[in-house]
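Worked example 2:
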Amino acid sequence: MTADSAEQKRSPVVEIKGGSVTLPIVKLLGTDITAIVTQLKQRVKQSPDFFRSAPVMIDATALEEDALIDLAALVEHLRGFEMVPMGIRGGGPDLREVATSLKLALLSQSSAPEVQPQKPPSPRPEKKAPKPVASVPATSLLIDQPVRSGQRVYARNCDLIVTAPVSYGAEIIADGHIHVYDTLRGRALAGVQGDTHCRIFCHDLQAELISIAGHYRISEDLDEKVQGRPVQIRLQDTTLIIDEI
């Protein structure tokens, strides 16, 4: 055994960890591939930099289980728009079989990768449960430093409060509300676990993208009247409403 191989055995060179990644979702509301591609082309044309090299998930949960769609053509067009299709959620057995042949990940309704059921482990002797320790639940995460391009902040199970600027290319995410007491130029995603009652508040709206519970708008969709203004953003049905404060 060489010195290099011995060193590699002592020092791990790779880790596999669980994580949370925000992906744009291509939600299918119909099966007409021509209409789908036409509308996708219009969206990409509005903000090509946002979609360039972006990993995306195909969501077929709104389709009937026996619905037929040319998934191979859709994947080809997505790649032609410089997007990177990663997987599919929903759909019937036939559609998911096609997805497998296209080497797409199969995702469950909760967006978690599906796994084959395993044999349950052998029962173990019960252990006495430890006495619970009282704790104060986190209600908010406070960030008082600028969030710079390429940085990502996630407030898990709580609100996010930022008292400094959020730069272009930065991403702030929260399971709850988002408050930015400065300029918001990057991406802000509130209610990422599906809470439609969450809101986004900021003193100066110049965001690349805003999203609540998966419903989003990009900068090109924002009314000029609210850009650069203090606003609150809320979800009404499936539409983001932006009100001046």
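The chain has two domains: 25-107, 140-244. The domain at 25-107 is CATH 3.30.70.260 (Alpha-Beta Plaits).
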